[in-house]
Design a protein that fits this description.
It is built from twelve helices and five strands. With about 325 residues, the chain is an alpha+beta fold.
Length: about 325
């Protein structure tokens, strides 16, 4: 039978575990960002995404371990001394448990509302650009895109569930056909992997981190996304051609008016050119090290659940 007190206690445990995991991550996130940058783009995105999801995973696993202890006999005996709850069937909102859940709920609702507003801004900006610039369907080398009738040079991918590539006549008149083919191939990579949606979701999950950590993580994720689109385009038209198109576009680049869109050649140009000319090689030891760090965060959390509970009650005796 569903019991509200049990549910709230387990949820409280999950929140404590997730935030403790996040605090542990703060100690090594700078190291992780530097190491991840040495890997190919696909690995960068995978590891960065896994890293920001780690607190959620830790919270779920710690709650699961507690449920195993409380309601089954399936528990490794030495671990039982670290995982227990003194008031499983009681929950007081006027306690630190209740205050914690209220703070977590308020923070989560604020983050979701803010990102829903940004999502709406994305949609409205895209509609405004399409209406003001008289958008028309076009195609180049088998890639579909939307041609915007404006003198402003633009090349970007936008749209969440149905992403599309957008180019402007101001851009097509400034670049050669070969450069245009590079740009379209790059943006098609963003479209294929729903990168605007991934960027929005990554922003939501990483919003729980302090700004000093959140910003480098988001920048690393965006750079990895651009690098992957560059490598996909390089397979079609050649790495040197993509690098040349980046430099050519940069000279006349305009800021993309749509939030969460990916604009060709607007950001990280020097890093991207370097990666195209000298592609990163896979270093097996880096994913292993990061996996060990994640495991350390998890097991430190599991072994600290009870002590954290006691320390909080010692500091906040209510």
């Amino acid at each position: 039978m569903f019991d509200t007190a049990i549910f709230l206690n387990v949820l409280s445990l999950a929140v404590v575990s997730a935030w403790f995991a996040l605090l542990l991550q703060l100690l090594v996130s700078g190291f992780l960002v530097r190491k991840v940058a040495l890997l190919p783009a696909g690995w960068q995105k995978t590891l960065l995404t896994s890293w920001v999801l780690l607190p959620v995973l830790v919270g779920a696993l710690c709650s699961g371990a507690f449920m195993l202890y409380a309601f089954t006999d399936v528990m490794w005996p030495p671990l039982e001394m670290f995982i227990h709850w003194h008031h499983l069937f009681e929950f007081e909102w006027l306690s630190w448990h209740g205050s914690l859940l209220v703070i977590w709920a308020v923070a989560t609702i604020w983050i979701l509302l803010r990102h829903i507003r940004l999502l709406n801004h994305h949609k409205q900006s895209l509609q405004s650009v399409s209406l003001m610039a008289d958008a028309n369907a076009a195609q180049l080398n088998g890639y579909n895109y939307i041609l915007l009738e404006t003198s402003i040079p633009l090349a970007f991918t936008a749209g969440m569930l149905r992403p599309m590539v957008y180019l402007s006549t101001g851009l097509t008149e400034r670049v050669t056909r070969d450069e245009l083919a590079c740009i379209v191939a790059h943006e098609a990579g963003h479209k294929r992997y729903f990168d605007p949606l991934q960027k929005w979701l990554f922003s939501i999950v990483s919003a729980y981190y302090p700004r000093a950590i959140r910003r480098p993580l988001r920048q690393a994720f965006e750079l990895a996304t651009e690098l992957r689109a560059d490598s996909q385009a390089a397979e079609q038209v050649g790495a040197l051609n993509v690098a040349s198109a980046l430099v050519a576009y940069r000279r006349s680049a305009q800021h993309c008016p749509v939030p969460f869109a990916f604009s060709f050649g607007e950001d990280f140009v020097s890093q991207r050119v370097h990666a195209l000319l000298e592609p990163a090689k896979f270093h097996f030891q880096i994913p292993v090290i990061i996996s060990l760090l994640a495991a350390a965060v998890l097991f430190t959390n599991l072994l600290s659940i009870d002590s954290i509970h006691h320390y909080i009650e010692l500091i906040l005796p209510f």
